[in-house]
UniProtKB/TrEMBL annotation:
<dbReference type="Pfam" id="PF13676">
    <property type="entry name" value="TIR_2"/>
</dbReference>
<protein>
    <submittedName>
        <fullName>TIR domain-containing protein</fullName>
    </submittedName>
</protein>
<feature type="domain" description="TIR">
    <location>
        <begin position="319"/>
        <end position="433"/>
    </location>
</feature>
<dbReference type="InterPro" id="IPR000157">
    <property type="entry name" value="TIR_dom"/>
</dbReference>
<dbReference type="GO" id="GO:0007165">
    <property type="term" value="P:signal transduction"/>
</dbReference>
<dbReference type="InterPro" id="IPR035897">
    <property type="entry name" value="Toll_tir_struct_dom_sf"/>
</dbReference>
<dbReference type="Pfam" id="PF13289">
    <property type="entry name" value="SIR2_2"/>
</dbReference>
Amino acid sequence: MSSTIKMKGRDWKILVNNIISGNCILVIGPDMASVEIEGKSKPITSHFANHLVGEIDGNPKIGNEDDLEEVIEAFLHQEPEDALQFEADEFFRENCDERPVYDDLAAIPFNLIINASPDKSLIRAFERKDLKIDKDFYVDFYNHKGRKRDQARWEDEKKPMLFYLYGSSDNWDSVVVSEIHLLDYLLSIISQTPALQSNISSRFCDEKTSFVFLGFGFQNWYLRILLYTLLGGKEVQKGRSRRSVALEKMMTDDKSDSDRITVLFKNKLNIIYPERKLDEFISELRKLCENKLKGKEEETGIRPDHEDDEIDIPGAPSVFICHASEDKKEAMDIYRSLKKGQLNPWIDKEGIRSGDNWNLVLERTIKDIDYFIVVQSKAMAGKVRGYVNKEINLALRLADEVRAGFNYLFPVLIDDSEPLEELRKYQTRDLTDISNIKGLIKDIRRDWERLKR
């Protein structure tokens, strides 16, 4: 595939940070799981197709015995649908991909894992780590034939969720196993009857979310439609700011078609295709995540520039801290207090505002933020020119877009200076005593809870 790239150290660093902060979803596609058959690797879905062929009486006319859809259609000519779903349940309970790549995946701290295949290989990998369902991780699924369920069963969102997008083989009626099922499934997803659980769908649509796609199958039209719908339909046309990664086998006969698909997703969804074997990529990613969490530097160029409190809290609102450079110490005190208050503060720790890059990222950063704090002081009041004025002006424009009764902009004072003229219509909170920040945290969390309703 001509559109593959070699990942740089920066690319690895961004990916690792997104995973650890809970802003990266792992999507395991139907081409991922495989088994060894006579020394050769075969997709587990093809192995299931071969298994079903052995359950069909006579000599059925099947063009490709590895094609699950074709084999299922032949199976259903002889057997009822509940027999098919019984076979699926038994097969995927007993047959799992036991390659080390699944142990590597289980060790990478993905917060949400979407499985577009009915296999249980990753569940077995979690269990090999002595992790228990409903205690250490959660498992749930979407049932396109079932009743609407507002939320997936994910009681503690700090623990991983393994979500089966095509249904669970433990619930026969939910599994998508034939072309008719697939068409019904797509209709259910698109029409939201029933809608995908909101605590799953919201993560797909979140602009802050990036993805790691493994064997997703972008060459399949129905998977492209599914992804388009999950990402918000027409919202996809706006593009995604956060980069995602896909390790994929483009299995179309027309190479130009493969390149066209690759470029489409690269441009619209900001997806890159690394020049790495899947197993090697995941092994390297596991090592880098473990080293990042341990604070170690790795040869790839990822440096231990984080503190423990830099790891984002999944589901918590993000808060931009606008401050004068002279007030760095006070701004960092606010940062740490917000973090202790279970919020996700953002502050320029690396001085990028002093460089040209800031103009490139400022607007996107602030637009992605849920709340904006202005740290007012004598130093800020004295800045007739400077980046803080640009930040405040942009925040004021965004605040005007917020519906009455909700908040976005929170000015605070850290000394005995007067509030800035342009912020006088907003309530200014006194943080000359940092302990007063408890009230600010409470107000932000209350506003956030109202927004989520």
